[in-house]
Structure formats: structure tokens, C-alpha cells
Amino acid sequence: FRANLDGTKVVTLSTCKSGDTYSEGSENLGMARAFIAAGSGAVIGGMGPVNDSVCESLFCRFYQTLLEGEHDAIAVWRQACLKQLEQLTTDEKKFPANWSPFVVYV
User: Fold this and answer.
1) How many angstroms from the chain centroid is the CA of residue 90?
2) Which of 7, 62, 70, 74 has the maximal Cβ count within 10 Å?
């Protein structure tokens, strides 16, 4: 992987299964791993099917907070997930895919 992402705080992969990895021998492979290897400080990636409205809501909150001047991307992501959880009905909260379908790799 030849990209140089040194100094990049976070890469977001906001699609279904973009954070999935698979193992081949002792090597963990996937897009998240490639971005970390290229120098990104963190990668946010999807772990399974992602509902479009959930994805839109989470990333809008995330990017809006970053634009307002907060620089800790990991803390901002956590905050976006918690706000998403607060706004769901009890039935919707039963399914983690509704409030946190992504993981953060560091």
C-alpha cells in the first residue's frame, strides 16, 4: 500500500462491511488495516449491513461536530453513537445495527 496518510487523524468508510477483516495465516487483511498501515490514526468502518438512514444520521452528527471544532475524532464518534441511541425507541434499541453498526480501529 503506497498511500501516505501520515498525519491523518481518521478515515471513515461509511459502507456496508467496509470494516470487515479476514485472516490469512497470521495477517489480518482488509481496508481498515490498509489505511492504518498507510499512516491513518484511526479508521471507522462498517461491520455488517448498514441502514441508510442510520448511516446518514450518524455521519451527519460526526462531521457536524468535527466542523464545529472538536478534533478528537474517536470521542466525537462515541458521542454520535450515544446520541443516536438516545433518539431511538425501546424496540429500535434492541438492534445494535440501529445505533452502532460501525467499529473504530486504532
Assistant:
1) 24
2) 62
Q: What value does the CA radius of gyration of the chain take, rounded to a whole number of Å?
A: 14
Q: How far is 15 from 94, CA to CA, in rounded Å?
A: 22
pLDDT tens-digit series, residues 3-42 = 899 988 889 887 776 666 655 554 555 788 888 889 999 8
The DSSP secondary structure of the chain, one letter per residue, reads -----TT---EEE-STTTT--EEETTEEESHHHHHHHTT-S-EEEE-S---HHHHHHHHHHHHHHHHTT---HHHHHHHHHHHHHHTS-HHHHT-GGGT--EEEE-
* DSSP 8-class letter at 49: -
- pTM summary value: 0.77
Cβ–Cβ under 8 Å, residues 8 and 73: no
Strand partners, 22: 29
